[in-house]
Each structure stands twice: as structure tokens, then as C-alpha cells.
Design goal:
Belongs to the eIF-3 subunit H family. InterPro entries: eIF3h, eIF3h_C, JAMM/MPN+_dom, JAMM_MPN+_peptidase_M67A, MPN. It is elongated, with a radius of gyration of 29 Å. It has 2 domains: 190 residues, Cytidine Deaminase, domain 2 (3-Layer(aba) Sandwich); 105 residues. It starts with 13 loop residues before the first strand and ends in a 9-residue tail after the last helix. The protein is 49% helix and 14% strand. The protein is of the alpha/beta class.
């Protein structure tokens, strides 16, 4: 039975990334750590699935060791995807790819992060630039170097929601506009599922690797040390990492908790700033009301004496209402707090699961175990 074809403007449902492309992103981000690493992605859009077939890093400006710790350098690296010089670099690169008959369709960009710290204004401006200037159907791949270094690949795909794109175009993130539009911090980014794709020759090679357990070369271990010192594992280049079996707490849990506290403190500062604005606005409005009441009384007295009334709109020249601060930074910080909270939940869940797995061996002999 033939399946119905999806329209060309069908919304993106998933992201498919070539395994070789993932390895290139991991290597580039690891080499540039702890500074930012960014690059652009090429591929094709096929029936609601965005296929990422290759990735290329943006050129890096080498600076002195002292200048690498300055804040402008960090901002320049984070803003590389929307830089004018890199726009020409991408166009020239895509031209060369077309000449050698390689996928040359721009499908997005990628960036590195540390412990999930990527929800900021630079990230939003880069993705907004890509979705507005290049193509609406582009994504941003976020690679967490710290999490990947522990043997857990952290690669996520995000897009800006259409609702946030419209709000960011108007640049009116006031309390009244947000209340009318119903835009929340959870509506800023849309995450898409990622699947990895291997070439057929790679799948053939992996299927030919003998199973050590079925061949009996790896006996049932009694500890992690037995696995790591087994000759069959030590001599195998494709042997997995057993760091995930350690019972110690995740080393990044404390750092993520500190980042979460800092983000909450930043949110508290933003709330205090908005409260100060409301108090200043209330004081100015009270002064304006007093002035208007006084002017009405003066005009009433002048009317009795048959004198021309005084203008009642002079308060606009005498008083200036404070400008309402943008709520965009507060929304991004709240979204970052949610990101940190999810990471802490994941860290704790993994550690708790391992502790329950060995709970029987941790109890003293004869101690009753709870149901």
C-alpha cells in the first residue's frame, strides 16, 4: 500500500545526523574547549526529516593567551554564525561543495556548551538569524562537551518556535504583550529528536565484530576491575567505557547545582529590577494624577472668572514615565533554570539507580531489607 506523500512545507519531525558528522563535531568542540566552538551544517530536507550529512567549523582567530580570557573574545566566538565575514565564508564553501557534487544545502549550525549552559541571547540571535535570513527549516545542534567526556553522548537539536519568532521580530517583550500573546519561557525553543545514521559499510563492519560473551572469552565478572583488566577488553579498541558503572556520585552534579543556584540568583535580581520599575512607575503616575487634579481645579476657577483654560497635557513635558525593562532576559534565564533542573534530576536518577542496584551488598549481614 503506497503511503501518502508529505507536503514540502510539512513541519520538521526529526533530525538524522551521519555518525561521521557527529564525530567531526565532537572533535572540533573538544579541541576548542573550554572556549566556544561553532560551525555550519549541510544536508537535505526529506519528507519532514532533516538529514545532516556534513559539518564544517567556522574559521578561528588565534589570539594571545592573555586575550583568550577577555569577555569580547568569548562574545565574538559565540556570535560567529551571524558574522558577515563568516557569511561569505559559508557561501564560498557551499560553492566548492557544489562543484564536487556534495550536499550543499544549508540546514543549520552547531555550537558547544559546558554543562548545558547554552540558553542565552547569543544562541537566540544566531538561530533567529538563520531562520529569518537563510531558511525557516534550519536547526541548531548543541553539543555538551562535559557530558560527552563521561561516555554519554550529549547532542540535542533545537529550533525557535513560530510564536517566539513573531515576538522577537517585534522586540516587544513587555509584561502586557507577553500576557496578551500567552508566550511563556517554555515556548522559546522546540527540541527535535535526533537519530544517528551509519553508512552501509560501517554497519557491515559492526555486524562482523564477534560477540565476546557468546564466544565465552569474557567470563561473568565480580567487579568493574575484573572487566577493565580482562585481556579480551584491554586489547579491544572498540571495547566500551565502564565509567558509568562506578558508584561515586556524578562529578558534575555539584557544579550543575552551583550553576542552578547562580541562575536562580540572576532570576531574583531580574525580579527585583522589575519590582523597582513598578514602584517608580507608580510614583510618577501618582505625581501626574496630582498635577492633573490641580490643573483641573485651576481651569475651573479660571472658567468662573471667564479666563481661557490652561492646557491639560503639559504633564507630558514635565514628567517622564520610566521605560519598562525587557522581559526577554528573564525568560531566557528561566528557561536555563529549567535546563539545569532537568540535568540535576538526570544526575540524581542515575546515581540513585546504581545505589539501589547494589543495595543488598551494602546492608550489613542480618539487617532487614525494606520492601
Amino acid at each position: 500500500m503506497a503511503t501518502a506523500e508529505l507536503p514540502k512545507d510539512a513541519p520538521l519531525q526529526a533530525i538524522q545526523v551521519e555518525a561521521l558528522t557527529v564525530m567531526k563535531i565532537i572533535k572540533h568542540c573538544a579541541d576548542r574547549f573550554p572556549t566556544f566552538a561553532t560551525g555550519f551544517l549541510v544536508g537535505m530536507d526529506r519528507e519532514g526529516t532533516l538529514e545532516v550529512t556534513n559539518a564544517f567549523p567556522f574559521p578561528v582567530i588565534d589570539l594571545s593567551p592573555e586575550a583568550q580570557y577577555e569577555q569580547p573574545h568569548v562574545n565574538a566566538a559565540a556570535a560567529a554564525p551571524r558574522a558577515k565575514a563568516n557569511a561569505g565564508y559559508q557561501a564560498e564553501y557551499l560553492k566548492v561543495l557544489r562543484e564536487v557534487n556534495i550536499d550543499a544545502n544549508h540546514v543549520g549550525w552547531y555550537t558547544s556548551c559546558n554543562l548545558g549552559n547554552f540558553v542565552n541571547l547569543n544562541f537566540i540571535e544566531n538561530q533567529y538569524h538563520y531562520q529569518r535570513e537563510l531558511n525557516e527549516r534550519v536547526v541548531a545542534l548543541v553539543h555538551d562537551v562535559s557530558r560527552t567526556s563521561q561516555g554519554i553522548l550529549s547532542l540535542r537539536a533545537f529550533r525557535l518556535s513560530p510564536q517566539f519568532m513573531a515576538a522577537y521580530k517585534e522586540s516587544k517583550f513587555t509584561a502586557d504583550n507577553l500576557q496578551k500573546s500567552g508566550l511563556k519561557y517554555s515556548d522559546i525553543l522546540v527540541e527535535l529528536p535526533i537519530t544517528l545514521h551509519n553508512a552501509l559499510n560501517v554497519n557491515t563492519f559492526l555486524s562482523q565484530i564477534p560477540n565476546m560473551l557468546s564466544n565465552g572469552t569474557l567470563a561473568a565478572p565480580t567487579s568493574v576491575s575484573d572487566i577493565e583488566h580482562n585481556p579480551a577488553v584491554a586489547q579491544d579498541d572498540l571495547a566500551p567505557s565502564f565509567n558509568a558503572l562506578t558508584l561515586s556520585n556524578d562529578p558534575f552534579l555539584s557544579q550543575t547545582a552551583d550553576n542552578l543556584l547562580d541562575a536562580i540568583e540572576t532570576h531574583h535580581v531580574e525580579s527585583n529590577n522589575f519590582s523597582y520599575y513598578n514602584r517608580a512607575l507608580a510614583r510618577e503616575q501618582a505625581k501626574i494624577q496630582q498635577w492633573q487634579a490641580k490643573r483641573k481645579a485651576e481651569n475651573a476657577a479660571r472658567a468662573l472668572s471667564k479666563q481661557p483654560p490652561l492646557p491639560e497635557d503639559e504633564w507630558q513635558r514635565l514628567y517622564k514615565l520610566p521605560t519598562e525593562p525587557s522581559r526577554l532576559e528573564s525568560m531566557l534565564n528561566t528557561r536555563q533554570v529549567e535546563q539545569y533542573a532537568r540535568q540535576v534530576d538526570g544526575f540524581v536518577a542515575g546515581s540513585t539507580g546504581k545505589m539501589f542496584a547494589v543495595r543488598g551488598n551494602l546492608l550489613p549481614d542480618g539487617a532487614p531489607s525494606e520492601a
